[in-house]
Amino acid sequence: MTIALGVLGCGTVGQGTVLLAHRRAEKIQHLTGFRPYVKRILVRDLEKTRSPEIDRSKLTNQAYDILDDPEIQVIVETIGGIEPARTYILEALRRGKHVVTANKDLIALYGTEILKVANDVGVEVLYEAAVGGAIPLVGPLQENLTANEVTDLKGIINGTTNFILTQMSETGAEFADALAEAQALGYAEADPSSDIDGLDAARKLTILASIAFHARVELADVQVEGIRHITARDVQYARELGCVVKLLASGTDRNGRLSLRVRPTLIPLAHPLAHVSNSYNALFVRGDAAGDLMFFGRGAGSMPTASAVVGDIISLLRNIRLGVAGSPENRLYLQKRVVPDEMLYQHYVRFSVSDKPGVFARIAQLFGDAGISMETVLQKRVEQGQAEIVVVTHSIPAHRMDELCDALAQVQQVQKVACVMPLEALSE
């Protein structure tokens, strides 16, 4: 038996999905009883050069050629962004069509609305590819790990920033040069703001935390800081301290009190996440029964993401065969409260000072007055009359570090508090 798919978008992910679904059609039929075939593909430009494996007779630039086709039972959305993807998905659901999407922005911002419509109509929305590319994250959190109370999520879930920070670490490149290389290789968009400002990772964390913690998490609940201010010197100092710098997305659930954050973080070289390099992604999950788990793989790209999309298609077809596709979901949402970060961290702080006698003594006094102990101190002369001081503190709450930095900024000889980052503990 065949089943018709309509694919919205034929860019990097869409084209990969069309090709992979065609190549695996026989295997999918064996696994599910249905042989999927792509009936129509929505594109913006009908004349654009595409893979010779794409049947050009299936292309259309009219979305409703797909949405209004009664033979098409499954919509695969790979357009990305909010509109028109949101409108098309809602229209598809209201027409009784199942949806598979790779759209993290849409699920992070409008997932609750979309899933409610699907539930009301009795169809399914699957979105494994929206978070980790080829890495299975949504499925394990929704199914395999549901016997656990998940308390911690920690991950490198943006390949662009991980590539940039890896280049800065391995070659000594400054941020702007590493970004330019990422753009030249296709790892970064022409406008990389969503990646380098941490928003892409924050959207993914919103989705993951909602599932893992059984809570209604909004994007606004995530504290976000990007990597624009990270310099080659920060990366070098991190190495001297036995660490690497990574953009870390993390969420914690402490007795129903959630903390969610995306920020550059020093990670000790002994931690597995320190060795996730270039465009690879990884997520560390801690469950009370399973213990610590790490999921690792390619978080983006045509075929890695298509792998997750087609995996969702297979799951959907199995459910259709069993007659359970679109069954009402019993989603567990517990009353939990998002709070400011209450965890204790060691902190890395780098500041520029006048290279004069007594300056460090004044700084040490401020640390002492704040009740913050120094674990490690690096002092470097960077040019005539100017020095840099790097301090790694003992574990303190983030708000106390903020207060100390405000006090340091008032000292005449402190020219700039240039960078502050938490240092991730090996274990808690």
Percentage of residues in strands: 25-35%
Distance between the termini: 53 Å
Overall form: elongated
Which architecture name of the largest domain does CATH use?
A: 3-Layer(aba) Sandwich
List segments where confidence is low: pLDDT < 50 over at least 5 consecutive residues: none
Instruction: Tell me how many strands there are.
Output: 18
Summarize the biggest pleated sheet: 7 strands, mixed
**CATH superfamily of the largest domain, please?**
NAD(P)-binding Rossmann-like Domain
What does this structure look like?
The chain has 428 residues and is an alpha/beta fold. It folds into 3 domains: 153 residues, 3-Layer(aba) Sandwich (Rossmann fold); 153 residues, Dihydrodipicolinate Reductase, domain 2, CATH 3.30.360; 80 residues, ACT domain (Alpha-Beta Plaits, 2-Layer Sandwich), CATH 3.30.70.260. Helices cover 37% and strands 28% of the residues. The protein is built from 15 helices and 18 strands. The strands form 3 sheets. Strands 7, 8, 9, 10, 11, 12 and 13 form a 7-stranded mixed beta sheet that branches. Strands 3-2-1-4-5-6 form a 6-stranded parallel beta sheet, sandwiched between helices. Strands 14, 15, 16, 17 and 18 form a 5-stranded antiparallel beta sheet that branches. Helix 1 packs across helix 13.
